[in-house]
Every structure is written in C-alpha cells, then in structure tokens.
Amino acid sequence: MIQRSRLHMAHLMIGFALLFGTLDESNCNNCAYACGQTWTNLGAPPSTSLIQNAVLSSAELTTFICGTSRDFQDPNSGGIFKRIVDNPNWYNSGLVYHDVNDLARLDFSSNGLLAATSEGLYRSDDEAETWNLITTAGSGGLRDQVSIAVSPFDSSEWILGSIELGIGSLYASSDLGENWELLRLTIPSVDITYSPTSNEIIYMAGGHFSRYNLELDSLEVLHEFFGQFVVSIEAHPSRPWIYFCAEDTIGRYDEVTGELSVVPLPGTGVAYRCLFLPPDSLIVGTEGGLYAVDENLESFRSIDDDHGSGEPLVCLDYLQAVSFSGGLHCRDLSSSADYKESQAELLQLLAFPNPVASTLFLSSGFTGQVKILNLLGQEVKRVDMKRGIPLSVDITGLTTGTYFLLHMSRLEQRDVTNVVSITVVR
C-alpha cells in the first residue's frame, strides 16, 4: 500500500511537471544567439560614446539596445542605437541629440522600456523602435534625468533621479508615470535600485552610498567615500544584500544585520560598474579588467580573457554581455553546468517545516505564484511570492494529508514551475 501511494505521488509530480513545465524547459532552445561560448565582439554604434548604465538586451541576447551620449558639435549624435542578430549593423532608433543616461525594462513579459535622458523621460512599447515623452515635470523642467528604477514588486511604480541646476532630485510615480511626486532634493544619484525586500526602500549611488525610506521620508548615508564617487549599485537576487562599487573599492550592505563591508579592488583599476550574475557572483568592470567576485567579497577572478578593460552592462539568464574598449562583447553561458546548478538553487522553492501543522514558511530567489493542490489536483490555496522574502502561509484550514506546491515564475521570458510536496498533520 505504501509503495503504491508513493508511486501514485511520483506519477502526480511527473504529470504536474509535464503540464506546467520544468526548470530546464526554455522557449529559446533554438534561438540564434548573437554570441557564442567565447567572447564575441558586436562592435559599437558609430561615432558615439556608450553610456555604461544604458545597455539592455532581449532575453535571448539576440537584440541589443544602447544609450549613447551626444556630441554638441554634431546634431545627429546621441540617442538610442539598436542591433539585432540578423543584422550586424547598429542603427539609430530614436532620441537623436539626447544623452541617454539610463535604460530600464518595465518587465520581462513585455517590450516596454524607459529611457532617462537629458531632455526628459521617454517610454517605448516596441523594443526601442519608437519613443514617447512621458514627462519633463518638475519646477525646473526636470530635463536632465540620470537614473530610473522600476519596482520589482509593482512595475507601475518608478523612481526617477534628475539634476536641476546642479542639485539632485528624487521623484516617484505610482501610476506608470502619469503623476509625479518630488520626494526630496539630494546629491545627484547616478544609479538607483529598489531594496530586494521592500518596495518602500531604495538605494542610491553618487557622492555617497545612501538609503532612502519612501514611507518615512528619511535619507540615511550608509557610507561616504571621501574623494571618491560611488558609480554603481546592485541588489542580490535572493538575499537582502546590496552591492556597490566606488572608484577603487567594492562593498556590500546587509539589510538585516546592518553590517557593511568594504574591500579594495585588485590592481589599480578604477571601477565602472558592478552587476550580479551567478555562478560568477558579482561581476565588476574596472580599468584593469573584468572580475568575478564571490558574494562575500573574499576572492577576485579575472574573466575578461585578455580583452582589456571591461564594463559589465547586461547580465541575463545563462548569458552575459559587457563592453570592452573595442566595442560591445557578449558571451553565452548556457552550457555551463555550474551556472545551471546555481540557477536551479536560486529558483528552488523552500518549504518548511515539513510535515507542517499550522504555519508553513516559503522562500525562493524569484517572484512568482504558489498554488497548493490536493492529491486530486484541485487548488485549495494560492499565494504570491516575492524574491528573497520569506512568506508565512496559514494552512490550518487544510485537512491532514499530502499536498503539492506549484511555484510558477518567469525567468527572462521563460515560464518556470517547481513542484514540492508537503504533508499536513494535525
């Protein structure tokens, strides 16, 4: 009887996996990537200067979108440039004679993009082919916008950093840019990111590394680099950690403990940007080369394959793209067993305790929905998960027995479902 019951559960789990998809299923198995397993030079937009925060790509790394800075002597310079896999040439797709300081994707299920520029905030809904001005709101015109962040919890909520008369300003919108609220004046922020655990906390890079609480309207300087400039910040995808890099140092802030660690970068290279990409952990681009740093900031490993200095620009599922001095380079990591194992761990749904009597705790590295099904496949409860945020679920209304948790999420335009069985006891 026990063996038949276990076999029945095994068949159910296989059925759920076939019905909803598995971690290894991908919509891009036959995609023609623009890059291979070694670094591929994609060239660079003609007669322009790439802006390190303003580079995006499609999930399959078949399309690249770059923001550039203008030459004041050339009315045809600046704007957005685009390159697709079937056409090796870059072409201008709008916003000519604009400094495009930052790009953000609304979410990975659409082609929506935002561009913070010297002339205002623009939006595209067709993968950068056409652009519409959203706002130049603000007392001073809010024209020179240097950074934009979209909330990972609610894509209708945005934070915008701008410079007005040399003073930094923070603006917030909760309705897709229809209305804006001036939060406060501050030091200009070259990079902004939301907290991985709260929609009310943002972190800013600029003259110092700081944290702003939107609900309390409080600004806290976490670390000040005297004589240096904080150039980039990056949130860990599944832990409450915020990474930041200044000119010759890199640091990590722990939101739970409040601990802040700062270590020097190797060599004499000045940092450009840092981005997170398992299994290489933190990717840091410096004048002296491109480095992979472990998440505890204890070891540095060169990964630029003698290409020279590198600015990490785009990090995607199984894929990685950076800018080297000779143009934009990319590399496909999809064949890396270590990386797949790392992503599998990141996506894993953790459920404890198991067996459980009253309160079940869930945790995952990715936002998604969890359905609780009984042995008949009937849905008895549904909850929403946020990446890296433990969730408590009251299951006192469930009867004794075995249930299945289906965690449904999206990873770079791929539907991913994990199945976990739990036992409810009374």
Strand-helix topology:
Layout lengths: L1 H19 L19 E2 L7 E9 L5 E7 L9 E6 L2 E6 L7 E6 L7 E5 L2 E5 L7 E4 L8 E7 L7 E7 L2 E7 L7 E6 L4 E4 L6 E5 L2 E6 L4 E7 L7 E4 L5 E5 L3 E6 L5 E5 L6 E6 L5 E5 L2 E5 L6 E3 L7 E7 L2 E6 L2 E6 L4 H11 L2 E3 L6 E5 L4 E6 L5 E7 L5 E4 L6 E10 L4 E10 L2
Antiparallel strand pairs: 1-28, 2-3, 3-4, 4-5, 6-7, 7-8, 8-9, 10-11, 11-12, 12-13, 14-15, 15-16, 16-17, 18-19, 19-20, 20-21, 22-23, 23-24, 24-25, 26-27, 27-28, 29-30, 30-33, 31-32, 31-34, 34-35
What do you see in this structure?
The protein is mainly β and 426 residues long. It folds into 2 domains: 2-25 and 348-424, Immunoglobulin-like; 40-340, YVTN repeat-like/Quinoprotein amine dehydrogenase (Methylamine Dehydrogenase, Chain H, 7 Propeller). Helix content is 7%, strand content 47%. It has helices spanning 2-20, 337-347, and strands spanning 40-41, 49-57, 63-69, 79-84, 87-92, 100-105, 113-117, 120-124, 132-135, 144-150, 158-164, 167-173, 181-186, 191-194, 201-205, 208-213, 218-224, 232-235, 241-245, 249-254, 260-264, 271-276, 282-286, 289-293, 300-302, 310-316, 319-324, 327-332, 350-352, 359-363, 368-373, 379-385, 391-394, 401-410, 415-424. The strands form 9 sheets. The protein has a 4-stranded antiparallel sheet with strand order 1-28-27-26, with no helix packed on it. Strands 2-3-4-5 form a 4-stranded antiparallel sheet, with no helix packed on it. The longest helix has 19 residues, at 2-20. The model is unreliable at 1-33, 137-141 and 314-318 (pLDDT under 50).
